[in-house]
Amino acid sequence: MASVSELYDVGWEEMRDKLRKWREDNSRNSEQIVDVGEELISDHASKLGDDVWIIYEQVMIAALDCSRDDLALTCLQELRKQFPDSHRVKRLTGMRLEALERYDEANKHYDAILEDDPTNTAARKRKISILKAQGKNGEAIRELNEYLEQFVGDQEAWHELSELYINEHDYGKAAFCLEELMMTNPHNHLYCEQYAEVKYTQGGLENLELSRKYFSQALRLNNRNMRALFGLYMSASHIAASPKVSAKVKKDNIKYAAWAANQINRAYKVSHKPRPSDTGTHIATVKESANTNCCILGRGRPSTNVGFSIADADM
Amino acid sequence: MAPELLLDSNIRLWVVLPIVFITFLVGVIRHYVSILLQSDKKLTLEQVSDSQVLIRSRILRENGKYIPKQSFLMRKFYFNNQEDGFFKKTKRKVVPPSPMTDPSMLTDMMKGNVTNVLPMILIGGWINWTFSGFVTTKVPFPLTLRFKPMLQQGIELLSLDASWVSSASWYFLNVFGLRSMYSLILGQDNGADQSRIMQEQMSGAAMAMPADTNKAFKAEWEALELTDHQWALESVEDDLMGRELDFDGMFSKELPSGIF
């Protein structure tokens, strides 16, 4: 099997820089990391200097993802030799035990870290991940809530909690978590979009209006967010088709939906891809059905989640 | 009229420059010594948690306009409610750490003194003894005669202008002047930055950290009471639809294949 450096004709410096870029971007391309990292540490470990330790950590976590227990064990042993009393290395030991499904031992490891240093966030988060891996969603949610009471600023944790709530279909609480994220990152269009999707799923006229507003905000922050564009179209058409709205609101929403549909058509043109033939007829249907006061997609109330699945909202 | 003295250029070579070097090197050594002697500060869970709560409240004040009004009010109520709002309810135990009773602060103070004040005194004295008896340099602004005994140590000339100073004062000038050099070379927050440390000591005596938490809570409570919710998304659709969306270059990039 050809090595990475032969396949791509790169030297060890480029491989090391690539690994650093993946570290900074926090990308989870474990197979690539294992390929590049394994060659780097087996052939060029001496040239890396002090970088080698963080590369060991990175490769070890990637190896656990790919089920490469041998590689993970080697990395872990090197790290343990170099940093015998480190909490960070203990956490990695715990992670390896988790990968081998020895959850009780892993838990013991994490408890030991926490006894020594109660402010250690990494150990707490690993314990919650263990609960999640064991499928105990309810307990995981409870523990995560307690964790967040102490460490209110941990954005990763808020995001994880919102995902857990979505899985439990508790959309109200998921919206709360996403609001926290939106406040701390007001310019991140992805959080706005996820929030809008959750609101759309919750349903009800108010929530639909909110979702339309937040889809627009996501578009304002990033003009190219196609998902938000479709979301805007869907929410506006839904409101327009609802029987309970006033005429002015209906008119406004039809205008919004028409604009969104226009933009979608433009996007298809720009991409030189043939647009699906029902977008154009869809808009006509919206206008018609809004005029004749019946709901578009054949369902009774706008509160049903019509084909806009939150479950694949992971990005 | 101030007499213009012509100083021997050897003074420049053998006095002015060596003092600069000595001061600089001593500062660098002080920095590394302070790093070695640093004790780690262990934060308690409560302190970490409190600092994060304060950050969250501040973010609520600043960015609350991005979330719906209802959510903002809900959070404001949680923090500020009369009976059981967080800021009203939580009172942290206040133990002002006096230097005498708190052993870790005592050792910190001692270490601070040893690394900073002592070398300054020693080196200042040594320089005064070595480079004494002659005029080193002239300060560019006129000084009154009262400064003479202070700045002209070792020079016994009654009629000499107070602007001409001895080497000890040149040393002190350097200590303060090289501060910016230290930030350049050692990065901010370095251990050689003496005047900053002295400022901290002066204001640090008046400021006790745990009492700060209660006061900080009170300050946040007041600030949050005053904040109103101006929803940033009032007219977002109209803003958005004012112009066409920018799809420039959206589909033109080739997808990366492989690792490199």
UniProtKB/TrEMBL annotation, chain A:
Q: What is its main location?
A: endoplasmic reticulum
Q: Keyword Membrane: yes or no?
A: yes
**What domain of life is recorded for the organism?**
Eukaryota
Repeat (TPR) residue spans along the chain? 155-188
Bilayer topology reads: Peripheral membrane protein
Subunit structure, per the record?
A: Component of the ER membrane protein complex (EMC).
Instruction: State what protein this is by name.
Output: ER membrane protein complex subunit 2
Question: Lineage in the entry?
Answer: Eukaryota, Metazoa, Chordata, Craniata, Vertebrata
From TrEMBL, chain B:
- Coiled-coil zones: none
Transmembrane stretches in the record are 12-33, 114-135
Instruction: Tell me a GO biological process for this protein.
Output: protein folding in endoplasmic reticulum
This protein's major location comes to: endoplasmic reticulum
Q: Which SMART domains does the UniProt record give?
A: DUF106
Q: Which GO terms describe its cellular component?
A: EMC complex
Any Pfam family hit: EMC3_TMCO1
Q: Where in the cell is it found?
A: Endoplasmic reticulum membrane
Question: Its topology with respect to the membrane?
Answer: Multi-pass membrane protein
Q: Which UniProt keywords apply?
A: Endoplasmic reticulum, Membrane, Transmembrane, Transmembrane helix
- Quaternary data: Component of the ER membrane protein complex (EMC).
The similarity annotation says: Belongs to the EMC3 family.
Its protein name is ER membrane protein complex subunit 3
